[in-house]
Amino acid sequence: MLTPELETKALLGRGVNDIYGRFVGRVIGIDRNPFGEMEGVQVESVGNSIITFKARQIALTPKAVTVTPEWKLEVEDVVSELSTLRKRVTALEQLNDAREIDGEIYAEILEAQRAGYLERVKMGEALAGSVKSQLGTVAGQIASLTKHLVNAKLDHKSGQLDDAALKLAQSSIEPSLRPLIGEKNDLALALRKLEGVLPSRVSLSETDSPLPSAAKSAR
Fold this sequence. Notes:
By secondary structure, the chain is α+β, with helices and mostly antiparallel strands. The chain contains five helices and six strands. Helix content is 60%, strand content 15%. Strands 4-3-2-1-6-5 form a six-stranded mixed β-sheet.
């Protein structure tokens, strides 16, 4: 772990790219808690706007500073938490079936697990909606750029653009298209992961299990 002094020297003024290779800006400030631990960084982006990234989004190597989108980390958190809660409820039910746990203790722990599960499900559903919306936006951007690229190739084939003009069009569009495709693939994968752990129906009834029957049948 770097000392605050070395960390500051390693970060300030450095260029920042996202995980898809797009330039984000340069580090102009570091946020620290009262103990001197880094909590985030301030990045000046194109257009002189300031973006704040949390410390967990930052990956520092000798050659680069890379940021991971917060939605990607949030998806990993929710998927991990829901998977863990399902395993814990399954283990709790197994203990109850084997009569290795007192009935009152079982009911108390089960209720706590239910509350935690429903809370994470709500978070996951909201996150899935956000990811789906962002996926639609990125897909639209890809479609627009792809259309421009196809039109340039069509103009070239029909003799309206020469080789140099086509090359210019390609060099202008393709560098923006590649990271968008990577981002779209990541968003689609994240959405599938969320849909894989989110139940199709959640009941708040006290008599119902906190997990969907499909999850319990997986035991």
